[in-house]
Design goal:
heterodimer, A: 196 residues, mainly alpha, Rna Polymerase Sigma Factor, Chain: A, Arc Repressor Mutant, subunit A, 0% strand, B: alpha/beta, Immunoglobulin-like, 2 domains, five-stranded mixed sheet, binds zinc ion
């Protein structure tokens, strides 16, 4: 598996060199380049849109600080480094949330902030479920509904679903592809990017 | 990692479902963090799956599953939404969401013992730390670990089979409740009699897991855990543990190992040179129900 392509590697080395030299445009370029990707990594761990934003900011603060200090000894591995910092920051967030929760349970304190999803998260959830309901209602074949549920909800093995529903892998992939493409179309129309 | 490989092996879906091995997950992250095609796909698929799960949970009957305290708080915060007329198939599968979430959690507990996540997390910051040597003792603990893992895995598979059976029997509520106890550490000097953790387990032989969150990431090769009874007698000892992605350790047990009473779990970090440091003590009380 190819981890770092040569072109990308050279580009990253140059970005790191510029940041060490104090070029703030290069710092912005790093943030732009990795913002979307680290949002996915962090959200996969913290599971809250609002917390993900905070952890994402913290990640870039650490990443840029370490690059400026020359702590990144293999600049061509910048992507891996960014992922690593993002994972650690997300784990750190979870750890702090757990401590708060334990304290809350022990002290019965009411003033400790609730780490539950905020209002924005709730609104986005409602939009997602609204769009999905529409897609499910649009599906004409019961088998396709069954496939989506078995695969994404029950997380059954793909080969097993194909066997049970008498589908080839290509037919399976087509059902998934069409449903997700339709979701993207409807959801982006309502709220913009899927991440939001 | 190229896109052909990602498509053929369903890497996007498996990543989002948490089904990729830790090292492959890290390789994929290293790829997609700098690939807008993949991040777009990830974001869209993730949002779609969340929507599907929400729709399923809206139609779920009141869950009777006990989610252990202190773990995955975000799972507890889900509220039931008002029900609307809907698709019948989702009613049945709503139960499956809960069942499979529990199974996946158990599976994660089993996987964590093999986990090399700590290595990946430190990989870029500490750069190529020297690999530790594998001696006979370590191999012995590995064998013990494998035995425990197999036991736990068998239990999970059993639960999974039962879960699938329930899934298509709409008359039944989900019955599976893999027990996972998240222990809170004892305050300094606290005796084991002042248990803050109560493990309520069935009197019949049952598998369960104990997890402890590590306070900080040390540079330990691995971790070992010891459980003593209330008279200081050794109940269980295990070594070679690695933290999972949440920086927590977990171990699987059978309820037959314990009687009603107080216990003390000690977690130690084992350095590369074999020296061990006590990192935390966790008192707990086992209460068996009929
Ligand atoms: Zn890609």
């Amino acid at each position: 598996m190819n981890l770092v392509s040569t072109n990308s590697g050279t580009e990253l080395v140059e970005l790191v060199r510029r940041i060490i030299a104090g070029d703030s445009a290069a710092e912005d370029a790093v943030v732009q380049r990795y913002r979307q990707g680290i949002t996915v990594i962090i959200d996969q761990i913290v599971r809250s849109q609002s917390a993900t934003e905070d952890v994402s900011q913290e990640t870039f603060r650490i990443v840029l600080e370490k690059i400026r200090r020359g702590d990144l000894r293999q600049p061509e591995r910048l992507s891996g480094f960014v992922c690593s910092v993002a994972r650690n920051a997300a784990i750190d967030y979870i750890r702090r949330a757990r401590r708060l929760e334990n304290r809350e349970e022990n002290c019965d304190a009411e003033h400790i902030p609730d780490p539950a999803p905020n209002q924005l998260d709730e609104i986005l959830k409602q939009e997602k479920s609204r769009v999905v309901r529409q897609i499910i209602n649009e599906l004409k074949i019961e088998r396709d509904r069954d496939l989506l549920n078995r695969y994404y909800i029950a997380e059954q093995d793909k080969d097993r679903i194909c066997e049970d529903l008498h589908l080839t892998r290509t037919q399976f992939n087509n059902v998934i592809y069409r449903a997700i493409a339709r979701f993207k179309e409807l959801y982006v129309r309502r709220v913009g990017r899927p991440e939001r | 990692m190229d896109h052909k490989y990602i498509d053929e092996l369903d890497i996007v879906d498996r990543y989002l479902m948490g089904k990729l091995p830790v090292d492959e997950s890290a390789r994929f992250e290293e790829h997609f963090v700098d690939c807008s095609d993949c991040t777009d796909r990830l974001e869209t698929t993730k949002a779609f799956v969340e929507g599907l799960r929400l729709v399923a949970s809206e139609r779920a009957p009141e869950a009777r599953i006990n989610i252990p305290k202190g773990r995955f708080w975000y799972l507890r915060s889900r509220k039931a939404f008002a029900l609307a007329a809907g698709v019948l198939s989702l009613v049945v599968l709503a139960s499956a969401v809960l069942v499979f979430n529990q199974i996946r959690r158990s599976r994660a507990e089993a996987d964590q013992a093999r986990s090399v996540s700590a290595q990946w997390e430190r990989r870029y910051e500490e750069e190529h730390q020297a690999a530790s040597s594998v001696d006979a003792k370590h191999q012995e603990t590995e064998r013990e670990l494998t035995r425990q893992l197999n036991q736990l895995q068998a239990e999970i598979e059993k639960q999974e089979r039962t879960g699938i059976a329930h899934q298509y029997d709409g008359s039944k509520q989900p019955q599976i409740n893999p027990l996972i106890f998240d222990l809170v550490s004892a305050r300094g000097g606290e005796s084991s009699s002042a248990s803050t953790n109560e493990l309520i387990i069935p009197r019949s032989p049952t598998s369960f897991s104990i997890t402890v969150a590590l306070e900080e990431e040390g540079s330990y090769k691995d971790y070992r855990m010891t459980i003593l009874g209330d008279h200081g007698q050794l109940i269980w000892k295990g070594s070679g543990f690695k933290p999972n992605r949440y920086n927590a350790l977990s171990a699987g047990f059978n309820s037959t190992l314990f009687r009603d009473g107080d216990y003390l779990l000690t977690v130690e970090g084992v350095a590369g040179d074999g020296n061990a440091s006590v990192l935390g003590k966790y008192s707990f009380r086992v209460v068996k129900t009929p």
